Amino acid sequence: MPEAENDPVDVVRRGYDALSLRYRADDASPGTYGPWITELLAVLKSGSRVLDLGCGCGVPVARDLVAAGHRVTGVDLSDVQIQRARRLVPGARFRRADATTLRLPPGSFEAVVALYSMIHMPLTAQPALLRSVASWLVEDGMLLLSAGWNEWTGSDDGWLGSETPMWWSHADVATYRQWLTQAGFVVLREEFVPEGDGGHSLFWARRSVRPPA
Questions:
Q1: Radius of gyration in angstroms for the set of CA atoms belonging to the chain, rounded to a whole number
Q2: Pairing mode, if any, of strands 93-96 and 109-114?
Q3: 84 contacts 20 by C-beta, under 8 angstroms
Q4: Mean pLDDT, contiguous 10-residue spans, the chain (213 residues)
Q5: Can you tell me the distance from the alpha carbon of 48 to that of 66, in angstroms, rounded to the nearest whole number?
Q6: pTM (whole model) above 0.90
Q7: Burial classification of residue 187, based on how many CB atoms lie within 10 Å of its CB (0-12 exposed, 13-18 middle, 19 or more buried)
């Protein structure tokens, strides 16, 4: 098998390219994301700059934030997801990129949202990404992050009932809490989000006004 087909990052990209519509329809409701988006909107100032990291097709996060008057930049690994996002949410800006190698100016955003995206990234790259996210935020900027609850790395060769593989890698909740603190965040709240026989962590955190120790 060619090396690219074994690369976990490429497995993720090709998986979302192939199953973008099966994963989320154009007119999908906010679903589980709904209360989280509502809570985020309640704390954002008018016209805030928000980075949607792993934005997918732009639905529902970018769509709903733009509708509320915020300035949204979406980043995703999948070409198909980005193409759909540009069509579905013309009021936002979208960029096809690997978040782990993304470079953005310091203090570019009042909030960063990363829902079910970091868990598709190599575990070794995740602490550095959190440090980058902290640098992209203004002081006291908000991070809404979903991550792992239990440590696991693995793949599914028949993702969403297809013949398309998908890959995940995440640490446990205590490790993410530590990584966030080390990156310069103050964790405001963490939640368990059930899914199937397991679930994920959901963190609400703010960039500290003081640099990490």
A1: 16
A2: unpaired
A3: yes
A4: 70 98 97 98 98 98 98 98 98 98 98 98 98 98 98 97 98 98 98 96 92 57
A5: 10
A6: yes
A7: middle
